[in-house]
SWIM-type domain-containing protein (Nelumbo nucifera), 132 residues
Amino acid sequence: MAASSLVTEAVWKEIVSTRSVTDDQLSILHFLFGKNFERATRIVDQRGVKRISGELSGRSVFQVTGESRKKEEYFCFPEHYCACYSFFYDVVNRGEQICCKHQLAARLAVSVGACVEVKVSDEQLALLLSKF
Ligand SMILES: [Zn+2]
């Protein structure tokens, strides 16, 4: 894992354990993610992160609303995957970013407890996932 990813993981862990973000952590995240981090905080401020959980299994997927006027929604696994174009282009294809703004927004929202929680049956969750 690249050094920048390790630093990021350490920062997220700290944020999760304290449930708040200090100025120092903010500057580290901003340094690592730049504009994407600003966009992610805007998404969180607009309550754009939904965590959809299966009632019995507790498994979950995130649905993140983009901050552009079109308000597209993307399915997203904060640590591994996002359905947006930038994830495929900047993260997977060119390797220029560690993650996209939706993944960042999801992690930030989880860390500070700002997700909109949606409970569905496991069947509904499976149906959602099958549409990926
Ligand atoms: Zn994305």
Remarks:
- Residues 74, 76, 82, 84, 86-87, 100, 102-103 surround zinc ion (CB under 6 Å).
- The longest helix spans residues 3-18.
- The chain has one domain: 3-130.
